[in-house]
Amino acid sequence: MALLTTQLILIAVFILIIHSIETLAYAVRLSGARVGLLASALSLFNILVMVSRMSNMMQQPFTGSLLDNAPKDNTFEFLALQFRFIIGASTIGTIVGIILFPTFIALFSRAIIHLAEVDGSIPALFKKGLSPSYIKRALKHIHLPKISTVKNIQFKDVPVRLFFVNIFITAIYTIGVLSALFAAFLVPAHSATAVMASGLVNGIATILLIIFIDPKISVMADKVIKGKGSYQQLKTASFMMVMSRLCGTLLAQLIFLPAAYYIAWFTRFF
């Protein structure tokens, strides 16, 4: 059986898009601070997070089918390579998000202003944003990251603790479903318990994100709007958060199998 199947490629593309969206979500609060409309920005941020979480749930059955269709011989190595390929897609998706980050700061800034103009109506925003004239205008804002962005980073402004916490949270979220599915293969007698553990793992990662990351960035954006903080400092923090996401997807490759073994061991208590 071929390792690289059409199904695996489609799942990888899906994961790539999900992680691109989640990376670009960090640009929303930066855009909100830029135009002074943080509340409207948070509405747009919540939509992006909801889309990415829903997409992640939708891909789970397709990823689960890889386990069902795995060959009988060398199943361990075969599944491990397929799942690592998917994790690699999350890394590529994050890189795509980083490349598109400056473009979407500009696009989100205009989207937030338009959202306020249409009294918070998301359908009206989409109707307006998908019109040919606005699409043509949006294409003019496409530009790649500049080296000057990195050069302007003041490392004293880098939230070091936040950086490492986000690496850990991203790694957990990246391998939550995959490690649970692999654990189901490791302990067939408790496979259902192992698969259901994916919701618990991702739930914990989401809670940690809400507790430790989101409030910090939101407060920094508030300070910028009130004139008590620096936009450059917020930009630095946002840039470091997306870089920590990238590191998190790389860490996911290292903890994928240990996490699967841990979930397999944990299922024996149920």
Automatic annotation (TrEMBL):
The organism of origin for this protein: Kurthia sibirica
Superkingdom classification of source: Bacteria
Known role: Involved in peptidoglycan biosynthesis. Transports lipid-linked peptidoglycan precursors from the inner to the outer leaflet of the cytoplasmic membrane.
InterPro entries found in the cross-reference section: Amj
Protein localization: Cell membrane
Transmembrane segments: 6-28, 35-55, 85-108, 162-186, 192-213, 242-264
Keywords on record: Cell membrane, Cell shape, Cell wall biogenesis/degradation, Membrane, Peptidoglycan synthesis, Transmembrane, Transmembrane helix, Transport
Molecular function per GO: lipid-linked peptidoglycan transporter activity
Gene Ontology BP terms: cell wall organization; peptidoglycan biosynthetic process; regulation of cell shape
Recorded GO CC terms: plasma membrane
Pathway assigned in UniProt: Cell wall biogenesis; peptidoglycan biosynthesis
Topological relation to the membrane, as annotated: Multi-pass membrane protein
Family per record: Belongs to the Amj family.
Family annotation (Pfam families): Amj
UniProt-recorded name of the protein: Lipid II flippase Amj
